[in-house]
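Internal tracking record. Fields below are filled automatically when a chain is submitted to the structure queue. Please do not edit lines marked as system-generated. If the sequence contains nonstandard residues, flag them in the REMARKS field before resubmitting.
Queue: standard
Priority: normal
Entity type: single polypeptide chain
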Amino acid sequence: MSYKVKEVYYTIQGEGYHTGRPAIFCRFAGCNLWTGLEKDRNKAICTFCDTEFVGTDGPSGGVFDSADTLANHVLEQWPNNAIPNPYVVCTGGEPLLQMNQNLVDAFHKNRIEIAIETNGTLLPPKNIDWICVSPKIGSDLVLNSGNELKFVYPQGQENPEQFVDLEFNHFSLQPMAGSDLNNNIKKTLEYCRLHPHWNLSLQTHKFLGIP
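SYSTEM-GENERATED OUTPUT FOLLOWS
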């Protein structure tokens, strides 16, 4: 199996539980909730996506013909081989359209700690180290357990409390980006104050001007 990857880059994790952690991001091409084309955004299940995941032409992106080839490529982005356990965040698009057990095993063979950021509509292979699910209203959530549930807020009139009984260790509420960001930040702050089960997640990489 080959893997189509939009981009691979080294940065600081900007959102969610691991905010501030140095990480390699591996962004897979393709998604099952939107084509990624602006002409299709209004009819997509997820209309608010703020990432570019079409094609393989991003920094260090490409088509990789095997799991070992991609794992080695990811490992090359880590800045210091003397520091063990490189950390990769597999995202998209939707990473679980392509991630399989061969790739998980290839990452682990290279001592790479694996995180995924997924919309939760597909089941993952075994032994992923950190699973973050970001549900999108209108899709079918089948991945009901993991390490972190990160809900972009607000999504219409939907109540985040519908997720709190799922089997996750951490619950994060993140203001929806876009033209109404400031108002969404206020709404999210107020919701977290009233529902302390939720932690506030901000896209700090955008404030800092890093990928």
